[in-house]
Amino acid sequence: MYARRMRGLKRWMKWQGIEYSDALLFSIDNEEMAAQPLSISVKTLCDLKDGDIVATIPKQSCLTVKTSAANHLIEEAQLGGYLALAVALMYEKSLGPQSKWFQYLQMLPPFEPIPLLWSLPEIDSLLSGTEIHKTVKEDKALVYQDWKECIKPLLGSDSFELNADFFTVDEYFAAKSLIASRSFQIDDYHGTGMVPLADLFNHKTAAEDVHFTSVSFSSESDSDTEYGKRDADDENDEPRASDSHSQTEGSGGSELELSSSSGTGLKFMEMIIVKDVKAGAEVFNTYGYVGNAALLHRYGFTEPDNPFDILNIDLDMVVQWSLSLFSCRHCRRRLSLWRKLDYLGCVSQDSEYFEISLNGEPQMELLVLLYIMLLPEDNYNELDLALSSIGEVKETPNLRLLRKKNFLSTEELEISKKLLLTRSVRQALFSLADGRESLYGPNTLEDDIRSFNDLCHATASKLYHSLMLRISERRIIGKLRSFAASVATVHWMRFSK
Ligand SMILES: C[S@@+](CC[C@H](N)C(=O)[O-])C[C@H]1O[C@@H](n2cnc3c(N)ncnc32)[C@H](O)[C@@H]1O
């Protein structure tokens, strides 16, 4: 059945002017597993060389708000962002064989089993403690709210004549999951859309084989715009929050690696090989330089040993730790002194948090906060006085240590970090590690690893990926403990001069 649909898709791509190399093989990996959603990968039948162009995709063949037959409806209903694209997708599905994308839609999975589509008990049992537990629950509520406020009213309207069966809340969640896992930012005019062929490539972290380039008719070499990679520090690499229309854009769209700032003049996108690929191998794209939390959140899978994994500790947890040792007044004053020194954690929506890197190193801001919380009262008063003085501020050793300008050079930063790692700060890091670990519930890391090793990936995909995420995060907690156990070797001399 799938082979016939695949032939239909290939014929359709030809009609649409989508050209691709004969070397590309679209392989259905799990055809015999009827209960599983279809899984396609792209392989190469012969050696591919760096620079080979393996596909050309006209933008007109992409399913976007601009190209969809739902364009007028979407404009009239004043829908925007990913919500509008979801309506376009649902609308095209509702047209059946009348849709320009019928053969393309026939090969799409009905949905992608990303956590947004998991039941609440599944989310609570599989994701608790992980970086995405709270976000996924919030996403679920917001997506439902979007449907109720923006899509449901369209169903009762005579002017739109929508087939309600294709616009149910379940269909909306399904459309959101497909957009999250396989939409691309095309250009300013088309916005985000579904890009046939490009969305068949699987992801490999930081080891992709193809990039995308937008090509103009007139001057190809001048106007090429690279799409393949994001900068490692691209802020879009984190799950994002809403835009103007929908509050749930972060959960709805991922913008796979095809983004462009190009204008409307560029009519095609090209897929270019960026490193040699041997015959028979899979050809991978990259969906961005992101850790397992973001991969699971947006695309429904994780990777072992992901170098972009990270762990966060909420400011709330630090405050709770502090309240377990000190009075409320103490905590408030110390926190405000930390802010007076111009410190801030990472901020996302309504939460403030600190990052712990893959190798277990806490963000400098966290070390400074712990140090201030634990300062003896005399030192705190001295520091507070120095900061409150009008006119010339009296430099004290602590002020010199804690001022942000000391962290500008790598050498000073490393020295400061070691000085901040007093015995009590290290003890505090252990307590925070314990607190963060307790969020995962009663199962230990060893229990998780044992369950993971006993699993069959193919039949227990949700459990497999959620365990992979828990294990990746808990290993970082282990490294945080090792970091806290490391002994500082720098002396105060430098700062007390
Ligand atoms: C853009 S599609 C890629 C093509 C897809 N395999 C298909 O069958 O159409 C993205 C989806 O492919 C799957 N996928 C991509 N890369 C993967 C990987 N490295 N490991 C597991 N699943 C992956 C995930 O289900 C993801 O949501």
Automatic annotation (TrEMBL):
PROSITE patterns: SET. GO terms for molecular function: protein-lysine N-methyltransferase activity. Residues 112-288 form the SET domain. GO terms for cellular component: nucleus. GO terms for biological process: methylation. The keyword Secreted does not apply. It is an enzyme of class 2 (transferase). The keyword Protein transport does not apply. Keywords: Methyltransferase, Nucleus, S-adenosyl-L-methionine, Transferase. Its EC number is 2.1.1.-. It is found in: Nucleus. SUPFAM superfamilies: SET domain. Residues 226-243 have a biased composition (Basic and acidic residues). InterPro entries: N-lys_methylase_SETD6, SET_dom, SET_dom_sf, SETD3_SETD6_MTase. Residues 217-261 are annotated as: Disordered. Protein-lysine N-methyltransferase. Belongs to the class V-like SAM-binding methyltransferase superfamily. Histone-lysine methyltransferase family. SETD6 subfamily. This is N-lysine methyltransferase.
